[in-house]
């Protein structure tokens, strides 16, 4: 017994070092798997405040680009307005259906929350943005985040007033997307190398793809509503050993300068998740 | 200004510079990530007890981690270099008692060549371990080697510039002082 104490005393520094290493590594691996870490909530509140101060200053330098993006989005939305479309002949008339079950309210599937990015990180293998909207403002884990130009990421951590979202440029990010032309579905991933490109995997070789084709989110995605821009095809990589193409995409969102984002709540998410689990349990 | 206040301010300063200046630089190449923050651990006084040195390394790395949302990724290498530091200082110190005459490691207190060796070894260890932790999740061996060498090169350049720009007065302390 005495020897054990002597040993501990002698190698105390080394043991202390080992203990701290184990703590640090357990933080890392725990976080990579579940995106939950000790004191993360408190830490996000603190780092969020600091980041907000910084982004207030930085915001001025991006005003021009931000305005351009917002104007473009307004243009796109204005073009979708019903009042732009005139009936072709005078005999047709617009009928407003007022039956309760058909009203918009009953079938609302997605709700959008505006938010501002206070910090973005595009240097590491696991990149994040932090947005100024949290639990108190209705944000929950696993909601989707989009910008006026296209998809951005997924919420992974929420504190009271801030939340962090994993962006597409993160090795752990995955989302379902499809080709706009043919509708073939695949999954969006990033290989961790070049932040200017992401990849769309598992597109069957029967698909007709060309450089410049548009890729949008698919109906299967559990985070994003369908038909949101992801990016355009930059190169088609022909995997000789498989029956699938891997497409190199240029993301439509500029992750370096994104400032205004929308967080999307899927109102049917719980229901979908429950059904999925029940199906799994029944098998 | 007392040493404690000065060191605490340096702690905050290095974290802020790393997060708001160096991490904001657009990636030039997939291998290059500019790291400078760990210079703080290299600058800590000679007489810091080994246990608190390791502890400071942990806290310092973790505070950067909470900014970059990678808990543990920077903390682990920081603990390692904080732990290895006293051994290196013992080997590289120019003459007996030099660590009593000067406060902290620098070119004046250690001499250029020993200080350069000290900085190069610790930078290499820090970046090597950091990239290794990233590499565990993905990447090829070439990626590992390339990234370690590239980040180390950039870090050493940054350290060199910082050493030239900073005014760290290292006064010779005698027994009477």
Description:
- The complex is a heterodimer of chains A (283) and B (177).
- Chain A is α+β, with helices and mostly antiparallel strands.
- Chain A is globular.
- In chain A, 32% of the residues lie in helices and 29% in strands.
- Chain B has helices at 3-22, 39-43, 50-68, 75-92, 98-101, 107-110, 112-135, 141-165.
- Chain B is built from 8 helices and no strands.
- Chain B is mainly alpha-helical.
- Chain B is globular and about 50 Å long.
- The A-B interface holds A 12-13, 16-17, 20-21, 23-29, 31-32, 37-40, 43-44, 46-47, 51, 54, 119, 121-126, 128, 130, 157, 164, 171, 191-195, 256 and B 20, 23, 25-27, 30, 33, 50-51, 54-55, 57-58, 61-62, 65-73, 75-76, 79-80, 83, 133-134, 137-139.
SSE arrangement:
The complex is a heterodimer of chains A (283) and B (177).
Chain A: H1 2-10, H2 12-34, H3 40-80, H4 104-107, E1 110-120, E2 126-131, E3 144-146, E4 151-158, E5 163-170, E6 175-179, E7 185-189, E8 198-204, E9 214-217, E10 229-238, E11 244-251, E12 260-266, H5 269-282
Antiparallel strand pairs in A: 1-2, 1-12, 2-5, 3-4, 3-12, 4-5, 6-7, 6-9, 7-8, 8-11, 9-10, 10-11
Chain B: H1 3-22, H2 39-43, H3 50-68, H4 75-92, H5 98-101, H6 107-110, H7 112-135, H8 141-165
Helix pairs in contact in B: 1-3, 3-4, 4-7, 7-8
The helix-strand sequence of chain B is HHHHHHHH
Shape of chain A: globular
Percentage of residues in helical conformation of chain A: 25-40%
Computed structural class of chain B: mainly alpha
Distance linking N and C termini of chain B: 17 Å
Beta-strand fraction estimate of chain B: under 5%
Radius of gyration of chain B: 16 Å
Distance between the termini of chain A: 55 Å
Radius of gyration of chain A, CA atoms, in whole angstroms: 24 Å
- Provide the residue-averaged pLDDT of chain B: 85
Q: Which pair of chains forms the biggest interface, and how many residues does each contribute?
A: A-B, 43 and 34 residues
């Amino acid at each position: 017994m005495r020897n054990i104490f002597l040993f501990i005393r002698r190698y105390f520094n080394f043991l202390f070092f080992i203990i701290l290493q184990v703590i640090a590594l357990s933080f890392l691996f725990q976080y990579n798997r579940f995106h939950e870490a000790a004191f993360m909530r408190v830490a996000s509140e603190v780092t969020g405040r600091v980041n907000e101060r910084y982004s207030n200053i930085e915001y001025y330098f991006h005003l021009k680009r931000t305005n351009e993006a917002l104007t473009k989005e307004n243009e796109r939305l204005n073009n979708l307005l019903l009042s732009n479309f005139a009936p072709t002949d005078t005999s047709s008339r617009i009928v407003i259906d007022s039956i309760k079950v058909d009203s918009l309210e009953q079938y609302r599937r997605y709700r959008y929350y505006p938010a501002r990015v206070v910090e973005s990180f595009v240097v590491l293998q696991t990149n994040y943005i932090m947005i100024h909207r949290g639990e108190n403002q209705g944000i929950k884990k696993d909601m989707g985040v989009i910008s006026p130009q296209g998809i951005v990421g997924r919420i992974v951590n929420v504190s009271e007033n801030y939340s962090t979202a994993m962006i597409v440029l993160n090795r752990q990010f995955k989302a379902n997307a499809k080709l706009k032309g043919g509708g073939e579905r695949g999954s969006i991933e990033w290989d961790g190398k070049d932040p200017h490109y992401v990849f769309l995997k598992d597109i069957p070789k029967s698909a007709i793809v060309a450089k410049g084709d548009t890729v949008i989110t698919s109906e299967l995605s559990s985070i994003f509503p369908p038909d949101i821009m992801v990016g355009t095809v930059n190169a088609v990589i022909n995997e000789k050993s498989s029956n699938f193409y891997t497409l190199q995409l240029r993301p439509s969102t500029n992750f370096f300068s994104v400032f205004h984002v929308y967080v999307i709540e899927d109102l049917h998410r719980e229901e979908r998740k429950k059904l999925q689990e029940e199906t799994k349990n029944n098998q | 200004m007392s040493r404690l206040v000065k060191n605490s301010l340096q702690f905050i300063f290095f974290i802020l510079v790393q997060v708001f200046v160096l991490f904001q630089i657009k990636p030039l190449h997939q291998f290059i990530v500019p790291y400078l923050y760990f210079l703080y651990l290299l600058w800590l006084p000679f007489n810091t007890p080994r246990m608190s040195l390791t502890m400071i390394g942990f806290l310092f790395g973790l505070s950067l981690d909470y900014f970059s949302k990678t808990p543990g990724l920077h903390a682990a290498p920081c603990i390692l270099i904080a732990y290895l530091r006293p051994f290196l200082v013992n080997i590289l110190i120019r003459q007996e008692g030099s660590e009593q005459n000067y406060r902290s490691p620098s070119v004046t207190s250690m001499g250029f060549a020993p200080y350069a060796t000290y900085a190069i070894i610790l930078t290499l260890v820090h970046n090597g371990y950091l990239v290794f932790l990233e590499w565990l999740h993905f990447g090829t061996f070439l990626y590992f080697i390339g990234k370690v060498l590239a980040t180390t090169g950039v870090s050493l350049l940054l350290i060199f510039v910082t050493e030239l720009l900073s005014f760290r007065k290292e006064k010779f302390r005698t027994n009477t002082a």
